[in-house]
Amino acid sequence: MIPGSRYFPIGLAALAAVFLLASCEKAAPYLDQVKKALDRETDEELAARKPVAPEDIPPPPAPVKMEPVVNKEARVSILGYHDFTDGTSSNDMILNVEDFRRQMQAIRDAKLPVISLRQFLDWKQGKSDIPAECVMITIDDGWKATHTLALGVLKDFGYPFTVFLYKNYINVGGRSLTHDEVREIARSGGTLSSHSLSHQNLSRKGGRGDEAYDAWLREELVESMRYLEETYGDTGAVVKTFAYPFGIYNDRVLEIAREAGYEACFTVNGKKTGWEEKDLEIGRYVVHGTTLANFDPALDFGGGAVTTGGRKLLAEQKSEDGTQKGPLVSVTPSANSVVGNRLPLIEVDLSKLTGVDPESIVLRVSGFGRVSHRFDPASGRLTYQIPQRLRVETCAVQLSFRHAGSKENELIGWTFQVDPLANYLSSDSAAPVKNDSLPPASTDEAALTPPAATPSL
Ligand SMILES: [Zn+2]
After folding, report:
1. Which residues lie across from 345 on neighbouring strands?
2. For residues 37 and 422, which has the higher predicted lDDT (pLDDT)?
3. How far apart are CA 113 and CA 151, in angstroms?
4. N or C: which end of the chain has fewer CB within 10 A?
């Protein structure tokens, strides 16, 4: 027999007592409730009470905030520039400023909107939408010509842009930007972003041990961010993005960039950026000074997986004798037009295409997703009445269909803008519009406004 086991029943009783006490403790609130119920006012007492004044009625709970539905099929072409000259240069990183102006004009001619870094980040983070196809402009290193040559052109076009600066080449004389020039850039549509402290290849450990390497990376990534925010805090600079020097990084660099709180980091891997693209490995087309080898593909959205043929179908067609025939597919509201009605009727004229399989047609509208349109095979006319006021300023529409017997999807994507002042116009009723009324006769708006041009291939 184990010594002390005779105390077992005593121990058990003590345990039970403790447990009982604990349950009483737990029972206390319940007993309170019972007591309250017993103390309840009688019916007479209740009737005698004054009715609740309207101002005492608690307000209804705030409506659930609807998250905007972003167009996850949108694509951004991000251009990366470096230095500029008003003369000529054989250095690929230096671009003649008149060539730069022509490129900015080409973006405009292609009807591609230029978005800001903030718009880009908000879209990537699912907060707000961007046009289905658009461009973002970045300039690296902080050469003086960013201020003396490029800034004027960008201001002329009203394009937002981003400059990636590295601390060791700011305000150090020569061809570097002065602090005041950086401030002027920041106040003229330029977003300041980090390009490290020293502009060294961050993937190179350079004989450092693991700890020393991490510490060095933190300096380059964290200190450069802090420096820009502190030095240019008077311009409201908040640094959220980083461009890897030479576009080079490794897993450790990615980890420390994430730790540092960067929302996006940029490489020099020329490709369109989709919504699924990894935030810390965003590609850019580095535009060369001597060839258009990177610029032209950057502007070509026609050959991609999403809008195959789209721009071509919407583009003006010329017959053999050179006369304009109008686009194969015309759309209303037309591409890049501004509408003053938040309840527009979307119309697509497919009559010039033969053999469209009506069953294959899918229409998507930003904010509404896939919608049920009306399609009349006899007239080739498709319509969709926006059922609720558009709350976005840029509305993206995407149409896909197949020709009968074909397995390939044709995709057409375009965007139009909604005049923000349309909010205050009385012409559009606040009541939802039903989609069963027959659409009014088509206007020739699509034909009057030239649609997006086909970029050169
Ligand atoms: Zn650089």
Report:
1. 385
2. 422
3. 18
4. N
CA proximity to 188, closest of 229, 135, 147: 147
pLDDT digits (tens, 9 = 90+) for 288-335: 887 777 888 888 887 432 333 344 566 666 666 666 667 788 889 987
Distance from the alpha carbon of residue 269 to the mean position of ligand 1, in angstroms = 14
In the reported structure, the alpha carbon of residue 266 is separated from the centroid of ligand 1 by a whole-number distance in angstroms of: 11
Using DSSP's 3-state secondary structure scheme, residue 24 falls into helix
105 alpha carbon, distance to own chain's centre: 23
Q: How far away, in angstroms, is 139 Cα from ligand 1 center?
A: 9
Q: Can you give the pTM of this predicted structure?
A: 0.56
CA–CA dist 340, 334 (Å, integer): 13
Decide: 198 and 223 in contact? Cβ < 8 Å: no
Quote the CA–CA distance of 121 and 160 in Å, as a whole number: 14
DSSP output for 215-278 = HHHHIIIIIHHHHHHHHTGGGT----EEE-GGG---HHHHHHHHHHT-SEEE----S-B-TTS-
Residue with the larger pLDDT of the pair 291 and 387: 387
- Single-letter amino acid code for the residue at 96: N
CA proximity to 241, closest of 136, 328, 339: 136
Domains of the chain, by residue range, sit at 75-299, 310-448
- The Å distance, Cα 234 to ligand 1 centre, comes to 25
Ligand 1 centroid – CA 339 distance (Å):
41
Q: Which residues of 422-443 are buried (b: 16+ CB within 10 A; e: fewer)?
A: beeeeebeeeeeebeeebeebe
The fold adopted by the segment(s) 75-299 is TIM Barrel (3.20.20)
Which CATH number applies to 310-448?
2.60.40.1220
194 CA → ligand 1 middle, Å: 10
- Cα of 210 to ligand 1 centre, how many Å? 25
CA–centroid distance, 415 to ligand 1, in Å, is 34
242: its two tokens: 């980083």
